[in-house]
UniProtKB/TrEMBL annotation:
This is AraC effector-binding domain-containing protein. SMART domains: AraC_E_bind. SUPFAM superfamilies: Probable bacterial effector-binding domain (SSF55136). Residues 1-149 form the AraC effector-binding domain. Pfam families: GyrI-like (PF06445).
Amino acid sequence: MEIKFKNIKERQVAYIIATGRAHIPHIFGELMDYITKNNISTIEHYYCTFFNNTLDVDHEELHYEIGIPLTGDVPGEGRIQIKKIPGNQVVSTIHKGSYNQMNHVYHTLLEHSIKNGYIISGPATEIYIKGTPEVSRNEVSVEVRFPVIKK
């Protein structure tokens, strides 16, 4: 597993905040429809930022934000909101394979950060390179990121 510290530039996103793991596929669809209907240009893959620990909460208590970086001056619509996410430094790796191995990925990133003198400064984000609901759970490719600051 290749782990990198890298800088992420400021980006504008369309996003939805929700609770409950069962809603995730529907939210991806809602954002895809919004992007398509409004002919919006995107600049990166869909992401999900988890506001609570995915290992410690019940599926219905999982609180998260799903969104996609985009360009242009676009309005929100319904529960889809628009915001700018400031640039930051992250520790990241790309996971390929089953979601069942994600716990290992998270732990490895945390350990690597501490060992290299960094502190985790915010929630985990998964970037779905190949991992939206229509992709088989064993064929995903997901970049996992944690924002970090140097001690």
